[in-house]
Amino acid sequence: MEDQKENMFYGATPEIFEFAKRNRANPTPAEELLWNYLCKNQLGLRFKRQHPIGQYIADFYCHSAKLVIELDGSIHQLPEVSQNDLEKEAFIKANGLKIIRFTNQEVFKNVNYVLNNIRELTNSPLGVRGEIRESVSSTLGAGGVKLIECPRDAIQGLHQFIPTEKKIKYLNLLLNSYLFDTIDFGSFVSPKAIPQMADTAEIVKHLDLIHTHTKLLAIIANERGASEASQFREISYLGYPFSISETFQLRNTNTTIAESLERVKHIQEISQKADKQLIIYISMGFGNPYGDIWNAEIALHWVEELQKLGIKIFSLSDTVGVATPQSIKYIFENLIPKYPNLEFGSHLHTTPDTWKEKIDAAYNAGCRRFDGAILGYGGCPMAADELVGNMDSENLINFDLENNFHTKNQIEKKLNQLSILKTAFQELIS
Q1: Is the domain of 120 the same as that of 222?
Q2: Distance of CA 401 to the CA centre of its chain
Q3: Bridge-partner residues for 49, per DSSP?
Q4: Is residue 158 helix, strand or coil?
Q5: Contact 100, 118 (CB under 8 A)
Q6: Assigned domain for 153 exists
Q7: Residue 183 half-sphere exposure toward CB, CA atoms < 13 A
Q8: Number of H helices, E strands in the chain
Q9: pLDDT by residue (tens digit) across 169-179?
């Protein structure tokens, strides 16, 4: 037994063991996230984290599979760190071990891709707690869905002002729930137009981003808003609503579509200088209630024009809930293959009985980015059907759980967090 234990560490010194112990007490967010999937034999294999191997420390190690897993942040791009990685990898391989590397972003954005690669290297067909698991359908692509929670969209139309402290408390619950990639938390627009969002600049100062990988998105309507939002390093994304309905563009941002295109150019320059990423919402992307000409080719045309400005993320918005599975399928099937380097999402409004067919259509056409709101709150005042609201985040979470690999422990945590958030949101608006 002692020989076997010694062979696990390949001559590591007491100093290395002490260093590994300190590392285990201070995991990076990416390490913590992946460990949720690897711990307690959830893949049918026993992994150890921050495991000493000779003069090095492996982020994760499975002795039975002789496999080392390394997670690399941006620091690994530095020449001296990259050289150390090469020497470490040579030592690991010289001792008959396999090594696989992933970036932190791959863990955050595509954890199923990471898990599938680990399973392939270990020849492990096992899923949750050692149970035999059926393979994921080929329609699922390389990973699960990216969920964007939109409390701003849910509450911005409420007439009664919600106290700033209540908003901060709720937003911090969202940030630390580990359910969402991004929180659309507020907007830098005229307080006369949207009084509920007048405290966005104050709120962002009190949000806890230390213990989460979730990012912040703020909506802006012009260059002034973009400049104001760009002052906050906490904000990763700026979102601009670009309507392909002339009437709605005038009502929403007081510009024509042509003027809005020029505005996007200026906002993109502001975003890039501040190291922010601009997201374009193609609003009225599936039709409009004003009688303005609409067809799918119009939406495709404007994506083509806007991507020339260096925009990398687009969200197709069903502003009034008129999208059909057919129109959703057509647009995404014509966008995603043509622009493989762009990210396309859906911001769909829906009735309680049509959400599933819309998500199915987008998902099967390759969309993996979905906006939602807890309890489906909010919606569009211009929709003819009062039942039309935001896509319920509970439906999106359950869709993800049903269609992508999650451990039993992960499922329980997600459902528990969802229950907490539903209660918290009802308290927020009460």
Answers
A1: no
A2: 15
A3: 60
A4: coil
A5: yes
A6: yes
A7: 27
A8: 17, 13
A9: 999 999 999 89
Laid out side by side, the sheet with 98-103 consists of: 48-53, 56-62, 67-72, 98-103
Predicted TM-score of the model (pTM): 0.68
Q: Is residue 138 part of a domain?
A: no
Which residue shows structure tokens 């007491």? 14
Long-range Cβ pairs for the range 199-204 (8 Å, 24+):
199/164, 199/167, 201/228, 201/232, 202/164, 203/164, 203/167, 203/168, 203/171, 204/232, 204/234, 204/235
Domain endpoint, select from 75, 96, 127: 127
- Enumerate residues 6+ apart whose C-beta is below 8 A from 302: 242, 244, 257, 282
- Cα–Cα distance between 28 and 102 in angstroms, integer? 14
Give the DSSP letter string of 379-401.
--TT-SSTT-EEPBHHHHHHHHH
- Nearest in space to 393 (alpha carbons), one of 410, 376, 369: 376
54-64 pLDDT, tens digit per residue, is 999 999 999 99
Regarding whether 391 and 266 lie in a shared domain, the answer is: yes
CA–CA separation, 384 and 380 (whole Å): 9
Strands 67-72 and 98-103: parallel
pLDDT digits (tens, 9 = 90+) for 318-353: 988 889 999 999 999 999 888 888 999 999 998 888
Domain that holds residue 191: 144-429
